[in-house]
Amino acid sequence: MNGLRWRALVVALLMLAGSAAAGLAKPTKSLADQIGIPNLEAMLPKQFGDWRVDTSLPTILPSPDVQAQLDKIYNQVLSRTYVNKSGQRIMLSVAYGGDQSDGTSAHRPEVCYPAQGFAITSNLKTSLHMGGRELQARRLMSKLGQRNEPITYWVVVGDEVVTTGIGQKLAQMRYGLRGVIADGMLVRISSIDGDMDRGHKLQEQFASDLFNNIDQAAATRLFGSAAE
Q1: Mind spelling out the 3-state secondary structure of 137-203?
Q2: Is 34 helix (H, G, I), strand (E, B) or coil?
Q3: What is the pLDDT of residues 40-85, one digit of tens each?
Q4: What global pTM score does this model have?
Q5: Is residue 107 left, alpha or beta, with left meaning phi > 0 and alpha meaning psi from -120 to 50?
Q6: Which of 49, 65, 109, 190 is least surrounded, with the fewest CB atoms within 10 Å of its CB?
Q7: Please, are residues 172 and 100 in contact by the beta-carbon 8 Å criterion?
Q8: Burial of 143 from C-beta contacts in 10 A (0-12 / 13-18 / 19+)
């Protein structure tokens, strides 16, 4: 058998082995059924530290087409605006999906913001410092007309924090190999500020304050169980 045919045979065998393994490892159990579905309304306090829900402003709802997409992907979406004693405002959006398989992967801001007309001018991986640990996250800068909106967000698959689409799929696969369909959470923090660094600094402080004022179970769902 010449070298070309041998390589073709090896590739075919590897493909067959991969298909067999995928069949054997097909997820059959839902993580949400095992650990319970979170209640975002109850999990997120309306007041903590120097922050409280701002009731003076109406909640800005997404457009009908965006809302339809969210309804397909997530089981729960909670959006709130918080304000501190200095009058600084933070917009918090938390979306939970009970099935984070390929068909319902988290809807990332760098995708949904441009779909609403925003331009993403910066997209960087970062580490947020909170409670003696580091949380891997992404920092974006978005712009629409005169509106400048710095964004900080992260995704939790099961209890794993991920910052890239590939990392998200690998986390899904790790759960899948254990026969488990992972749930997931997308946490997005943003503010209106033309100074990107100042906006991201305030968002990190908000995230740290939130982390330090919720119980361990809620912290694991929102921030993952590890810093990686």
Answers
A1: EEEEEEEECCEEEEEEEEEEECCEEECCHHHHHHHHHHHHHCCEECCEEEEEEECCCCCHHHHHHHH
A2: helix
A3: 999 999 999 999 999 886 655 555 565 555 555 667 889 999 999 9
A4: 0.79
A5: beta
A6: 65
A7: yes
A8: middle
